[in-house]
Design brief:
It is built from two helices and eleven strands. It is mainly β.
Amino acid sequence: MDELNRAFDIALKGPEAERALADFHRQIAAWNVAMPQVEPLVLDFGLGDFRRIGLIEYWIANEAQAGYCGKYLFVFDGQTCPLHRHRVKHETFFVVKGRMAAEYDGRNLELDEGGRLAVEPWKYHSFTGVGPLLLLELSMPCQVDDNFFENVNIPIGGNYCGRKQQ
């Protein structure tokens, strides 16, 4: 199955997603940043607490055959992308706008605009906006089941036990 469609299957929808996108668009306009013409993903990781745990993703490219992926990731002030790791994917985050507090392999880091963090496979990582934060992710292709979340209540990824057997 196409990974982007799988991601949309778990995306937040409805009034809360619309409010989040409106707030996001206001921030992007204030920064005067151009975003790609793709449909954004508003993710709450199935926890129902988007403003605390979630993010907005813009998939620029997920070229499995060519071996690369590019995304913009946005989190609001205080919002966190939860602690997780990837069995296969290597990724690099670049801080486009804002400031990022990150946990990487048991260490706490802070990165300003222009900062970069390379994340090796199987290393736990998460990030939080210190103020609104826009990241560019450059990585190996995205595969939904290559996400292994520390919080096993997150109903997606390779370690989710409650999903239907295929």
